Amino acid sequence: MNAYTPLRPAGTTVRWLDSVYTIQLGPAETGGAVGMFAAIVQPDAGPPRHIHRNEDEIIHVIEGEVTFWLEGQILARRGGDTVFIPRGKEHAFHVTGAEPARFVTVVTPGGFESFFARAAEAGLQPQRHRAELDALAAAYGCVFTGPPLRVGTPAAAGA
Q1: How far apart are CA 115 and CA 12, in angstroms?
Q2: How far apart are CA 31 and CA 26, in angstroms?
Q3: What's the CA gap between 115 and 113, in Å, rounded?
Q4: What is the pLDDT along the chain (159 residues), one digit of tens a residue?
Q5: CA-CA distance, 90 to 20, in Å (whole number)?
C-alpha cells in the first residue's frame, strides 16, 4: 500500500475550479496500485503546468477538444484519444472546444485522485491560496511549475 490515505471513497463527486471530478477507483479498491477519476472540464479551462513525482498518468478524452502541453510538445486531442504522461514530466492541458471536455484519468500508483476532494473541501483557489495549494500538492508529490496553458501563448509554445 502506498502512503496515500483516501479522503473520499470511490463514487465521490466534487466540484473544484472549472471542473467536476468523480473518483472511480482509489487505493482502497486497488491496494494502492491504481487510481481512476472522471472529470468534466469547462471550455477555456485547465490546470496550471505541473509535475507528478509519484504517478504515471493516462488521460482518455471521452469527448471534447483539448490541447495538451507535455514538456514543450503540443498534442491536439479530441474524443477517443488517449495521452500517456510519465511521472516527472511537466505538463498541462487546456480545453479548446466550445463544449466541456470529459476525461477518464488513470494514475499509477493510486492516491492522487483524492487531491481534488481535499482541494475542494478546503475551498482552495490558486490566486488566493497559493501557499496552501502548493503544500497540499506537495503532500501528493505534485509541484506546480507555471501558469495554466493558454493556447496561442508562449506557454503553449513551450517558452
Answers
A1: 12
A2: 8
A3: 5
A4: 344 444 456 678 999 988 999 999 988 888 889 999 999 999 999 999 999 999 999 999 999 999 999 999 999 999 999 999 999 999 999 999 999 999 999 999 999 988 988 999 999 988 889 999 999 999 999 999 988 888 754 444 443
A5: 23
